[in-house]
Structures are given as C-alpha cells and as structure tokens.
Amino acid sequence: MPGITLKNVKKSYGAYEAIHHLDLEVADGEFLCLLGPSGCGKTTTLRMIAGLENLSSGELAVGERVVDCPETASFIAPEKRGMGLVFQSYALWPHLTIEQNVEFGLKLRKVAKVERQKCTTDVMQSLGIEQYRARYPSQLSGGQQQRVALARMLAVNPDVLLLDEPLSNLDARLRLEMRAELKRIHDKFSTTIVFVTHDQWEAMTLADTIAVMNEGTLQQLGTPDDIYERPANRFVAEFVGSPPINILEFGGTGELVQEAMRFLAKQHPEIFDIGSVGIRPEAISLVSGKEALATGDFGAPACVAAILPTGGSWIIELETGGTTIFMNTHVAPSVREGDRMWFRVEAHALNVFDTQGDRIRAADDAFSVAAA
C-alpha cells in the first residue's frame, strides 16, 4: 500500500484560504485521523487527497506518483488514484440488494463474474453481513448499512481508504462496535486509512497517528499518547480530553496561580516566558496534608466543592486558592463535599505553555514537547 505526502499545500476559495501551508505524511499502511473542530479544514484535506478538490498550490503525492501539483499542471483524476471514499452518508443504492451494492465497484471495473462473486462473498463474510446479501439497505440497521458501505469499498481493494466521519450517524453503542470493526479491518487488510472526525475518542482509540487541525493549520502530528500527554500547544491541550484540562493563567492574582509560579521558578529557573500551566484532571490526587506530598510534587490546600458521579468514574470539583479545578478518578471517593484536603500533581504531569500558547521544553525534559 502506498503512503501519502502533502508538501506546502494550500487551498483557497477566492480570498479565503481554507488550508495554510500543510505538510503531512501518511505512511504506508498507517491509520491516520484528521481531528479538529468544524471548519478546521480536515474534510477539505480529505477531499484534496481523494481528488474531489484541487490544490491551490503545493504538491500531493501517493507513493512515488504526484497526483496534484498546480505548479506543474499535474492532476490525476479521482477514479485513477486507487482510493476508496466512504462518506458520512452511506450512499447505498436503495434499489440494489446488499450483494449488488457490495459488488457495484467490481462491476464498474469489469471484473469477471466468478472472481467478482468470490470477492464479494469474502468481504461480506469478513464484515459479518453475508447473511443479509439478499436484503435491501432499507431493511438493515444503521450499523449494518455502515458495514455494507465499507464492504463496497474494500471489495475493490483500494490502495488508500478515505473515511469522512462515517460513524457520526450511529448511536453510542453502534459507534463503539464500529470502532472495533474498523480497527479489525485495518489489522486484517493493512490498508492505508485516512479518517476524518471531530470526536477525540474516535481518534484516540482508532489511530496510529493523529493530525490535529485548527483554522486550516496543522497544530500537532503524533501518536495518541503524544497528543494527550504532550500537547504541542494550548489548543491541542484544551481540545483533547474529557473532562477538559485545567488551565492556570499566569499573571493573575489567585493564590494557586502564585503558588504555581513559585513552584516552577524553583524547579525550573531556566524558564522565563511562562503564560499558563495545564493539569489533566486524572493527574490530580488528594492527600491528607502537605506532609504527604512527595519531593518535587506540586500541591496546595483545597476544599471539595462537589462530587459528580459519571458512572464508573467521578469528577471532583475543588476550590483552591481562589481557583476552581477538576479532578477525575475511577476509584469511589472517600471524601465528602466541604472536606478540606491537599491536592497533589507530579511535576512531570504539568503542561507548561509560553505566552504564545506553545508548549515549553524544560532543560531537564520534564516538559518535553511532541512533534508539531
């Protein structure tokens, strides 16, 4: 399977530039998620890869073949790129049976009948829809229709599979099932997959690599662990995570902010341009008092303001030094509202950002930055 390379790609609609200087590589056999809020440019990027949108400038290559480059007037038509595209809507033919829908692409390619039937049966069996071959799309559930749409694409054995928010029309349980199905498909077929989503958990659970985008710009490219544990900037830190990351804005007058400033000045005197600190809710724990803090821990007195059960986990609201922060725990809390404790955070769990919102890398690598 080929990889995909975008070099200095821009896409403009008149005066509006939707994609700015995008450099991105998708490795052979990789599962890449384009993640970001609505309007960030992720679907536009996918459509350029598919050939449904032309580049305004830059170069797009699949393997060694340049498929779009305005500077050299190179453009390969979508149907000649060896790609399969699954839309948010399943786009199944309502008057064709499931078997006829799955073999549709093979018929267009004039594949011999015997080979076509074998390929169709194999892919339907792989996706667990072979028993529905004589039914019509209207007789299937949303999850089953999604499997048919995937089967239709996989039947033609595309070099690259492009998925544009294909799970957004499913309910929570079916989304979970289809995530597992997509993971299994990727493991089995080793197809290069580019998956567009605004759902961070889809990206975190499915992708080998995540490309976080915002306002047409690539914010960070990395593994799910990189994106979550070492966000390249505040946008990534605040976009990924539920409950969201706690942000302490420096320059304020709150006691907690002042304590954080003193802590970082002592631990990392080489850092001068601190604008804010982010703390993931699950990185926080409660201890009885200051004496329970380990050497190098950051902590402060806190009052338990609220305990919010979410089913399997608990969100605890803490009032500390004039600031509200939230912690998350999967262990039933022994504290009650109004209890006074100390919270603690290990130094490596502090995400430190400069005044521009970019992650700071400390001299001892405690605040290491992911590739951006």
TrEMBL record:
One of its GO terms (molecular function) is ABC-type transporter activity. Coiled coil: none annotated. Keywords: ATP-binding, Cell membrane, Membrane, Nucleotide-binding, Translocase, Transport. Gene3D superfamilies: 2.40.50.100, Nucleic acid-binding proteins, P-loop containing nucleotide triphosphate hydrolases. The keyword Transport applies. SUPFAM superfamilies: MOP-like, P-loop containing nucleoside triphosphate hydrolases. It comes from the Bacteria. One of its GO terms (cellular component) is ATP-binding cassette (ABC) transporter complex, substrate-binding subunit-containing. Pfam families: ABC_tran, TOBE_2. Residues 4-240 form the ABC transporter domain. Belongs to the ABC transporter superfamily. This is Carbohydrate ABC transporter ATP-binding protein, CUT1 family. It comes from Primorskyibacter flagellatus.
